[in-house]
Design brief:
4-stranded mixed sheet, Alpha/beta knot, 60s Ribosomal Protein L30, Chain: A, alpha/beta, 10 strands, 10 helices, about 20% strand
Length: about 260
């Protein structure tokens, strides 16, 4: 049975300050918790209903609580609880520039919507991108809504938070990696030769890429609409644009 202290702790992890204070986050659902179990992430508490525990025998060595559906509802951040919830330790992941030299990396400039961030992490996982650099104003990776939207991809993709201008200044002093950015005034991405290695900057939903970051871009890219002479949407959702950009980089790499 869950103690009142544990229930209070779990409920508090909806807020970033308590996630930071306790170095813990919450993940829910069979798919996401299953990905965590297969990863190197540490689970502090595993909380599940009886039938889920009966169906899943290979469980990590941690404190496991069997609860009823009603009890799970008390601690879940979902409207409809998904039978299992894990309270995990936030890992201490270090970034080294050598990790970026021979790879494609995403940089997110103030992507504040949790759903968009989670989807972008899932996209990065799909296209084999292992590291994402995020500005401090970007949504918190361990926000329950972000975790949910990743569908477990966060267990394989590292998200590092830095001041982007400072990060890029240091990057350029230590590497020669190209820095691409998506803008409405950039060059048609389908007519550009794209490097297999580099940084792709995606700007915020409302403001695009900040002026400070625009200054360090090697090349600005643009996704043209199919019919350029006809009325169309003003812009694409940032997660959708990220998928298109990543697909073109990988297409050229494989062609």
């Amino acid at each position: 049975m869950l103690s009142k202290a544990i229930i209070k702790l779990i409920r508090s992890l909806d807020q970033k300050k308590y996630r930071v204070e306790n170095n813990l986050f919450v993940a829910e659902g069979h798919k996401i918790v299953g990905e965590i179990i297969k990863s190197e992430l540490s689970i502090k508490y595993l909380i599940a209903v009886k039938d889920w525990l009966n169906e899943n025998k290979k469980l990590p060595k941690t404190e496991i609580f069997e609860v009823t559906e009603k009890e799970l509802q008390q601690i879940s951040f979902q409207k409809t609880p998904q039978k299992v919830l894990a309270v995990c330790t936030i890992p201490d992941k270090k970034l080294h520039f050598d990790d970026l030299k021979n790879s494609l990396t995403l940089a997110l400039d103030d992507i504040q919507d949790p759903g968009n961030l989670g989807t972008i992490i899932r996209i990065a996982d799909w296209f084999g991108i292992k590291n994402i650099i995020a500005s401090p104003a970007t949504a918190d990776l361990y926000n329950p809504k972000v975790i949910q939207a990743t569908m477990g991809a966060f267990a394989r993709v590292n998200v590092h938070y830095f001041s982007l201008p400072e990060f890029f200044n240091k990057l350029q002093s230590e590497t020669s990696l190209p820095i691409y950015g998506t803008t409405l005034t950039g060059e048609n991405i389908y007519k550009q030769k794209l490097n297999n290695n580099g940084i792709i900057v995606m700007g915020s939903e409302g403001n695009g890429i900040s002026k400070e970051v625009l200054k360090v871009l090697t090349k600005q890219l643009y996704i043209p609409p199919f019919q350029s002479n006809s009325p169309t949407s003003e812009s694409l959702n940032v997660a959708t644009a990220t998928a298109i950009i990543c697909a073109e980089f990988r297409r050229q790499q494989c062609s």
